[in-house]
Amino acid sequence: MGYIKDGLFRSKIVKNILAMLVGASGAQLISMLAIPIISRLFTPSDIGMLGSFQSILAILTPIAGFSYPVAIVLANNRREAAGMVWISVMSGAIISLIIIIALGLVTLIDQFTPWNIQIETWLYFVPLFIFFITLNQISENILIKENFFGYISGSNFISSLVVNGTKIGFGLLSPTVWVLISATFLGILTKIVMQVKPVNENNLIFFLRPTSQIKPIILDLAKKYSDFPIYRMPESFLSAMVRNLPVIILASFLSSAAAGYYVMAKTVLAVPGFLLTKAVGDVFFPKFTDKVKKLDNPFDFLVKFTIALSLLSLLPYTIVMIAGPEIFTFVFGIEWADSGLYAQWISLWLFTAFSAAACTRAIAPLKLQKVYLMYRVFYLASTLVALFIGIYLFEDAVLAIAIYCIVSSVMNILLMVHVLYYTYGIERGKNAN
């Protein structure tokens, strides 16, 4: 008990986790309280269209920054970190411009050819969102590198308040998909403003200035951290494809309402898991990276985190697996009963994903990006087959999601086993020496 009190609760890492959890819990509470109101203001079709928009953003986001924002945390010094900031900014601007050109070309093709290409109006806002999402990643990783977790926590809380307040406030006046999309943008903008402010207050503004000392090393830094665009970016892209395929496929081949049921179920179940995973992961990542560099028992550290995450998520997800339809009908209304059917299977998937969160964040420090990329390719192929079986062969959306979630759970377990075994090998090699 003495060890627990002195070694755990007084440790800086636990204080950082608690700081992140305060904001994550507050943001989670706001979102959970708002969802029953939002579900009664907007139709499943509205939620489905928002889900399709957010899925496209999620798939394109890893490409926007070439995954360089993550390298800010790994930079050896502030000069390197500042260089990575500007590489990330330029990458985000270039990709946003490419998306604008692509949308323009598709529009011209639609107007001057007999092809009937239907482009949703909200697609034209994707480049703007992508650039601001990249800025948000940059500002957040600067604060992670400087251990300013309290600021990240605060920005998560206020952003959640802004997003959900906008959805409810304007939803009462005009409940359309544009209200939902606008609220999403305001949330991103709020986080950027709140995260850039402490950079200035704590004399870290040099991160945002391409000084003469930084410009000459930008190309060298791009080469030094080339693993991120070569391995991390494709992996993140494939990962986003896996996570967001159900929404896009359900909306494209069945209906926006079917996608809306799935989005609602996943949102309700993933919001707490995502916020807690991110809060713990943002603290875990730099600490684990340091332990790997120093060979300071990284396996023991990773096992403890993995067990803790599994225990934390076991009870809530088990309850939803048993009584999903009843819970969704009671909380959100009879209109959302179908979401409860999806939720039963999504709970299984998210439980394994939440348990594997620490192992997933350990990929970069362990330099397993190449293996992880191959893993993601196989993961994507497996889930495509799962969705094909359910939708094309059986024309059953719930069955498609069930098979998808079972396949995803198996893949998460395989990932945990591999990463833990590899980390154990590193520790065993150190002890042998």
What does this structure look like?
The protein folds into two domains: 15-23 and 41-225, no CATH class; 226-433, no CATH class. Helices cover 84% and strands 0% of the residues. It has 16 helices and no strands. The protein has helices at 2-8, 12-41, 44-64, 68-74, 78-112, 126-145, 149-173, 177-201, 218-224, 227-253, 256-294, 298-332, 337-355, 357-361, 369-393, 397-432. Helix 11 (256-294) packs parallel to helix 13 and helix 12 (298-332) runs antiparallel to helix 13 (337-355).
Oligomer: single chain
Q: What is the count of distinct domains?
A: 2
User: In this structure, how is the largest beta sheet organized?
Assistant: none
Average of pLDDT? 83
Individual helix count: 16
Strand content: under 5%
Distance between the termini: 33 Å
Give a count of the beta strands, DSSP E runs of length 2 or more.
0
Low-pLDDT parts are 1-10
Question: What's the helical proportion of residues?
Answer: over 70%
Which of globular, elongated, flat, extended, rod-shaped describes the shape?
Answer: globular
Q: What order do the helices and strands follow?
A: HHHHHHHHHHHHHHHH
Cα gyration radius (Å): 22 Å
- Structural class estimated from helices and strands: mainly alpha
